[in-house]
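Hello forum,

I keep getting stuck at the same step: I have a sequence, I want structure tokens, and every attempt I make locally crashes halfway through. Rather than fight my setup again tonight, could one of you with a working pipeline run this one for me? It's a single chain of 649 residues.
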Amino acid sequence: MAEDIKAPEERVSDQASVEALRKAQTDCVNVSFFRMDTQKNQCKFGTSGVCCRICHMGPCRITAKSPFGVCGADADTIVARNYLREVAGGASAHSDHGRHLVLLLKKIAEDNGGDYRIKDEKALRENAVKYGIDIEGLSSREIAGRLADVFLADYTAQEETLKTLTLAPLKRQGVWERTGASPKGVDRMIVECMHRTHMGVDHDYENILLHGIRTSLSDGWGGSRMATIASDIIFGSPAPVRSTANLGVLGENTVNVVVHGHEPALSEMLAAAAADPEVKEYAKAAGAEGVTLAGICCTANEILMRHGIPVAGNFLQQELAIVTGAVEMMIIDVQCCMPALPDVASSYHTEIISTSSIAKTVGADHVSFNTDTAYSTAKKLLFRAIDNFKKRDPEKVSIPKITEPLVAGFSVDAIKYMLGGSFRGSFRPLNDAIIQGRIKGVVGIVGCNNPKQKLDDYINTLTVELLKRDILVLKTGCAAIASAKAGLLTPETALSHAGDGLREVCEAVGMPPVLHMGSCVDNSRLLEAATEVVLEGGLGDDISDVPVVGVAPEWMSEKAVSIGTYFVGSGIDVILGHPFYISGLENVTDFLNNRAADIFGASFHVHDNPHDACEAIMDIINKRRDKLGINRQVERKLLDMKDRRELGV
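Reply #2:
Ran it on my machine without issues. Output:
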């Protein structure tokens, strides 16, 4: 490796990744961390957002000496257009994920769902009622069909606003209507992004940015929300489950199959097929002790929270899992799957299998997956992985003996159950704890990993600091896996960091202070939870009143741009660990980081240090608590008879 490659300890936080990186160096395997180091100085025009290549009169680069592109577009227009295109990319990723699940729900309703069935009747009926469907006398399949039709209409609506927006607090709906931010159909919003940013169309940066918020809302309250609801109905709503995390979950004597990506349809069938007696016997006949199925990235979160299947790692560990030399097969679908995977796998015996028609990878074998033959396809892939076990080179195998236990699977319904049981489940105890000051507020920590930062360091440092300050922490995506690897997803470990008030509440209701709420598409659960707090009462009548903050510490994808934007558009301030590519002009930065608060009650804040971020979060939360009038320190007083008479009790 080149001399300018940083030491593993500078790149990653957990010891398993340190060991895997050292092995990658020894094996002369080029992984993302090393490729980042060889990038040296990245393009400053790109990082500031002032490079425009949307027409072929350019590319145009805006500088003080050349303040306009060939067409006359200034930096405001160029930066805003680039930002809007990132929102479109992110919103399309999660929304298209949702579309596939809605179409599967429709197939199930038509008795054409192959091996898939409705697993959560309660979730089906409750959500149908929320969407205004009269379910009286209807069968489950009939209800599923009508709900799928409502969802599909939210994708294709041309003039009507999203039906899903009605799930938000009334005051927030009013904000969207008043500001013109209420989105039409998901598909229309994304197409309009591309049209607006075409050469010669929209040049008003504020108008462009407003459509960015509108489009992101069609993702957070539309595509992503529908994805989460459909997943719960088809695969079952998550409930607390114990499992383990990190590279040490891979077995030395088992066939190791790693699933990576985002869509849960195939991974669900792989989870079922791995338990098939025929698969187990085939593995034993091949000389293995069995099959170990493990996950990477958000597919990991999907099968973790529904089946307790162990997590091998998050985004930046996808290549490191292969470097262990013990992975027979990595099965990938869409989003966050690095094109370098086949190159890394070529140094070992690992097969890379792509399964989505929209996500083929050069060097990977493609196995088409469709829902009609899902289970048989899953079994065939496992048999193929077992056949590959004999090609494993023992000299190349080195699995870090490092894992951590975890508890995951906290849907909003699961949180209600923890707070009040089966018959009195509600957010009342949480609201009361916030009002009383035992819990100061709620922070959602979400997003990816980025090799520009030390893996997991910001996420976990911030988590521990917030727990000390009596903040309840909600986690999704790769941020949740980061905390799992640090042992912060076990109630016992997390409580040892919690402040007195937070610990008291969590111990009383049996709730851990860090809640794993799912994959990155499940950020819609955080919006659902914030809405439940508002509807429960006592903490304002809009999400922008609630002492809640969102954080994307180590984000890297366009999805994170869309997620952050729909959080701000919903009234939740967002802390970014590093900025968007918008620094090229002050106007766009000022709009998103300041003036958005005047319109939507929230804005973006950038802090590259977790300790600074913690102080900023506490400042936002305390300002909201002050505004609600719940930050007052009231002296406790034992009432005598005179006091009681004056109170009239």
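The longest helix spans residues 75-109. If your local run keeps crashing, start a new thread with the error log.
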